[in-house]
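Training component of the fellowship. As part of building independent skills, the fellow (R.M.) carried out the full modelling exercise for a liganded target. The chosen ligand was NAP. The inputs are recorded below so that the supervisory panel can assess the work.
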Amino acid sequence: MVAERLDGKACAAEVESSLVPRIMALKSKGVEPHLAVIIVGEDPASKVYVTAKQTGCERLGIKSTKYSLPADVGKEELITLIQTLNADINVHGILIQSPLPSVMDEIGLTELVEPNKDVDGFHPHNLGRLVQGRTDGLLPCTPSGIIRMLEWAGVKLAGARAVVIGRSRIVGIPLSLMLAARGYDATVSIVHSKTEDIDSICRDADVLVAAVGRPGLVKADWVKQGAVVIDVGVNRVLDSNKEKGWSLAGDVDPGVSENASLLSPVPGGVGPMTIAMLMTNTVFAAEQY
Ligand code: NAP
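Fellow's submitted model of the complex:
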């Protein structure tokens, strides 16, 4: 078997097209959807992600404003900015680009964002709704993008065994909650760095998601014949064939393609879906305002 490519780029393009009439309807009522992005420090990967998010906004006619703060910005200054954006009736979404410098309390700062403007879906109010099984609000973008991509490809989740590798607040845990929620109805196992016999647990999966950050961790013999495999990992690996000296690799070894039926590529899989869901959340937040 050679896996079919699960084309996140194509799915994201469809999701974004479906937003156009909603954005036009908002504008006809005098509302211009507006995303505020806060970036602290000089992390190169964060800068690339923020540019991609702002480009997504431009593509769709969503206004975006970037607030770049130095790594040593005072806590008070950052809090004042968040409070100002919370109070601004012309701002509908607020995103604090992760990771913040390690000395900052990222979770505490995220809690300061007004839940109705929390387009990242990381506020305890929005994560709490997800724990209650309510999937109709602002959901974290990468997990909701993965679910949307699986639905788009016609993957049957009800009754399926899903294994999620990784238990982060950003991907693994919210994705596991969503997959298990009523309406999606998968049976979910979460595995992580302390899990024993991880390969045999993964071999049980009808849907296997790798959200780890270890290039090529998932090998072909971890994957059942015909399984659907979602590669969330974004890893820079040395590559002498590239002018820049590196290329992007996922968490899934290319050999997995021999066993999987569908496999999301890196790049071009989960990444574009994350942006498309951020755009969706921003439009949703503007509609609810
Ligand atoms: P994270 O917070 O570092 O979490 C990584 C998870 O992987 C942790 O739960 C960790 O276990 C687990 N892990 C580490 N080594 C492992 C191993 N050898 N075996 C099994 N589990 C292991 O990372 P994250 O934020 O979830 O991101 C994961 C990856 O996805 C990264 O490459 C990131 O760049 C990428 N990502 C991509 C997008 C996108 O839009 N494409 C969005 C978000 C993230 P412990 O909890 O035990 O430490």
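The panel noted the following from the submitted structure. Residues 139-270 form a domain with the Rossmann fold fold (CATH 3.40.50.720). The first strand starts at residue 4 and ends at 5.
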